[in-house]
Amino acid sequence: MDYLSRTKRQFSITILLSLIASNFLIIAGWITLRSKLQLSNIDYALILGLLAIILSLLFTLVLTKHLISPLKAIWQLIVHISPNGSSVNAPNIDSLKIGHELIANLSMQIYQLSSITNTKKNEEQQLTQSANRNFIANKLPLPLFILDKEETIVFSNHPASDYIGLNQADIMGKNFYMVMDMAFPSDNTLDTWLKEVKSKNATASMSWERVKLNVLDNHPTLLFDLAAYYNKDNPDNYETILVLFDHTKQYSQDDQAVSFVALSVHELRTPLTVLRGYIEALEEELGKEMNPELQEYMQKMNATAQQLTVFVNNILNVARVDNDQLQLQLREENWSEIVQSAIDAISLRAKVRGIELKSSIDPDLPTVGVDRLSIYEVINNLIDNAIKYSGKSTKIEISSYMSKDGMIETSVKDYGLGISPSIMPNLFTKFYRDHRNRAQIGGTGLGLYLSKAIISAHGGNIWVTSNLGKGSTFSFTIKPYTLLAEELKNSDNNEIVRGAHGWIKNHSLYRR
Amino acid sequence: MDPISPGETIAPQNAQPARKVLCIEDEHFIGELYKRALTNAGYDTTLEVDGLIGLSLAQSDQFDIILLDLMLPNMTGIDILRSLRDPNKTPHLKAKIIITTNLEQREDVKQDIENQADGYIVKAEMTPKELVEFLNNIG
């Protein structure tokens, strides 16, 4: 039997009992009146009518209160669980005399209904939140991956799947390293970094430049910068967030060649290598069979090819200076040995011009802290200039000595054309050349500009003294090694890395 | 120094068998010059122009020295170097790897290459004969 009909019967019984009771009371009243008082029939009727009205009123009041109580309980309950009804107490269903079971059952259902509505609401909220998150993540024009503790991909946005050319289904739930076959430029990889931070940090962030991604066949290699954010015990299990910044175009160009200049340098160097190689082979094969005149031609060819090699390096290094990419590795070196080998390398060029290179290097000079290749280039450029501007003179003097202020000074002195005082201030400017000599003397105006940049990066000075018509002396200073030793002690690999425009941190990520 | 007549080979100073050089170089003239100079100095030289074939030759582990250009057809020298230094791809390699290139790299890329190779040479800065002297001086 269901609760409703049971309640209905309770109601009927209550009403029936009330009616019987009221009728019984009226009859009882009538009998009592008749036995005690002798009244007319009209009086009896009036008194009994009055009694019936009073009793009906009484019973109505009691019945209504009784019968309305289940409805009241339901009303109380609904108001109680409604969002603003916290001030109304929950009904005491156990105290109900009528419809107790029905109301208990109904209120349970109401509670259930309300909790379903709440869950629905929460779910909707969560759905909206996650939709918002997805929307933002997918509108972010950068590939984004989120990994859990096991480095499984728990989220990736559309740009991410598009970027690596896979479907979302092929990415989600997979191990990140299985999806992304990456190569890093150094030992500091995502893998090693994550291992380290997982053991030490609660949160950490890191970025890498020039990460290479080997993707499936028929897909070009991708190059990008990678930024990572690590957050241990993230409640959503979003432990590592990775964002990729694509630089494929730029870096692949860079990797093939630093820039247009580097590419040109490559294109110049290859035929130069071939030329120098065959000149050497010819000298070997023909050697002594050649008459002195031919031998001289051969030497001139060789010297010119060498000069071109130096010039090509100048172009490259000027581009590096201009782009803050020239890096010097300062190490302890024997100065006289460097100067002597630079002189030896250029001696053929002097010889074919009929110029004698005289050197006087103080044998007791202390060791120096220099970048061998760059400083070599400075000496080479200065001697090369001296050769070019020697005019009819046949002597160039190279000397090296300790200066009064504790620096090692080296000068290259020629007895040639000299420099007009009016142009002296511009001498170390890029592309600047003495216009009076442009027609006769080849050059680009890069050598002195580059030499100044290199010497400055060494912490030295470069300057010139000249007498028009009598020759010029170019001098520069560099630091003895002892002055650098203190800095070297603090560096990690026994060398100091410097840029042409001052200090740069070794192995820093965003160097440019 | 006495000139070397064509075709003449000079026995290595010690009586050991000739050192074997693999020269992976796609510029034919440079390859020819290197082969000539190396052969004249008593090296047993193999020339290869293709990157992929070069890698498999190198992995055969029959060479003492590998001269490796960076810009190569089919596979770049950097990728060859990485494969040769990856124990999963090349379990054993006795050869010394010398990078020979005219290409300029960014400093960090260059540093990385230098760390993995046994030598780094700018071809334009060394004549073939100077290259041979360089090779004579490495172990």
Order of helices and strands of chain A: HHHEEHHHEHEEEHHHEHEEHEEHEEHEE
Rg measurement of chain B, Å: 15 Å
CATH superfamily of the largest domain in chain A: Histidine kinase-like ATPase, C-terminal domain
Per DSSP E runs of 2 or more residues, the count of β-strands of chain B stands at 5
Approximate shape of chain A: rod-shaped
Give the strand order of the largest sheet of chain B, numbering strands 1, 2, ... along the chain: 2-1-3-4-5
Structural class of chain A: alpha+beta
Count of DSSP H/I helices of chain B: 5
Biggest sheet of chain A, strands in spatial order? 2-1-6-5-4-3
For the record, give the distance between the C-alpha atoms at the N and C termini of chain A, rounded to a whole number.
Answer: 86 Å
How many H/I helices of chain A? 14
Number of domains of chain B: 1
Keywords:
heterodimer, A: 512 residues, alpha+beta, Beta-Lactamase, 4 domains, 6-stranded antiparallel beta sheet, 5-stranded mixed beta sheet, 14 helices, 15 strands, 52% helix, 18% strand, disordered C terminus, B: 139 residues, alpha/beta, Rossmann fold, 5-stranded parallel beta sheet, 17% strand, disordered N terminus
